[in-house]
Amino acid sequence: MQNNLIQKIQELVKQYFELKEKEKEFAPGKTKIPLQQPTYNWEEVNESIDSLLSTWVTMGKKVSSFENLFAGYLDVKYATMVNSGSSANLVSLSILTNPTLSNRLKAGEEVITPATTWATTVYPIANVNAIPVLVDVDLETFNINVDEIERAITEKTRAIMPVHLLGNPCDIKRIMEIAEEHDLFVIEDSCEAHGAEVNGKKVGSFGDMSTFSYFFSHHISTIEGGMITTNNEEYYELAKALRVFGWARNLKRYEEYAKRYKDIDKRFLFVNIGFNFRPTEIQGAFGLHQIKKLDKFIESRRRNAKYWNGRLDEYSDYLMFQEERPGTRHVWFGYPITVKSDSTFNRDELIKFLEERKIETRPIQIPNIAKQPSISLMNHCIFGDLPNSTYIMNNSFWFGNHQGIGKEEREYIADCIEEFIKEKV
């Protein structure tokens, strides 16, 4: 009886999503083109219902299976899921500062990171009492300027935390060379760059650790969620412990700890400091199906970006666009545009025009975090005047580029930009 009911529920869920898909119709100028569109359908929902009906809803086998699948996708040894990409960054920094490490990042030491970024790349550096050193970015990629990294290194520098912003890979090979030369840790913030590559190797597989986000707006989503990846077993064991209070459960040395501390019930043995950053089994259920769809979603984004780059190239006197650099795979978290400062119009005028035509836009994440009021609440260092970050703050924006944007939508967006420019020049 129960199995029949479950099968009926699953069939109804599938029917609902199939009907919803058929109802979609794009009307230029009337249908909103959002920054993101949900990446899930009946498969993820039914997998989640399966977990709910089983009553095992906290971190379990589905989370573990998704971790293994994602590690395999990146070709890394270990992946540890947490409840968000922000938590992944905090756990990564907390691993590097953990008292159990003989070679660790210490209070007052410096971590170089870009000024064009997201808040939760910078905040965790301060959270572990290290000093974020903000350096400028490259105007063409929005990624950390590698020359600035080399100039910003001091005797206090212990780590680099680059961001593959908007899915565009950093010059990670050169960053790793600098890190090796100066004996620095590297944490890749890959939260917006699922599936991006440099010379056929996935970003998130270069650094000592890397982080990913599965927030609702990302390439794939577990509603909320994040991942820490590494090839270092010690970091992996620390990640597992730190995400759940420093609990000994699920650690490789669990039985060893239990024998050492015989007077403590091993089920409630805590061997490290930590957090409660556990994901749910619902998030794991989503991930099992989302990972299978990732490359298909990426190809949609790449197809859209290729079209816009080709269609809008004739307006390069007024606008700057990102290009996929040789040897890289750009995965286009969004489609960024920079209005040149000598154009006959400004960024805000173009944004207003697009928004009025139902095309949603956003600033470039936090284009210059050095300008944010929150920066005054942490011990930090600003290296140089950050001219490119300031330029991006004043002249750049992005609009949605995702699997929900097809031929009609991308042509409509290009038509609107073309219409605006022809009115202004």
Distance separating the two termini = 70 Å
Helix run count:
13
Biggest sheet character: 8 strands, mixed
In total, the number of domains comes to: 2
User: How many E strands?
Assistant: 15
CATH topology of the largest domain: Aspartate Aminotransferase, domain 2
Main sheet: strand order: 1-9-8-5-4-2-3-14
CATH superfamily of the largest domain: Type I PLP-dependent aspartate aminotransferase-like (Major domain)
Give the integer mean of the pLDDT values.
Answer: 97
Helix/strand order: HHHEHEHEHEHEEEEEHHHEEEHEEHEH
Output the structural class: alpha/beta
Estimated helix fraction: 40-55%
CATH class placement of the largest domain: Alpha Beta
Architecture (CATH level 2) name of the largest domain: 3-Layer(aba) Sandwich
Regarding quaternary structure, how should these chains be classified? single chain
> Poorly predicted ranges (pLDDT <50, ≥5 residues)?
none
Global outline: flat
From the alpha-carbon coordinates, what is the Rg to the nearest angstrom? 23 Å
The portion of residues forming beta strands comes to: 5-15%
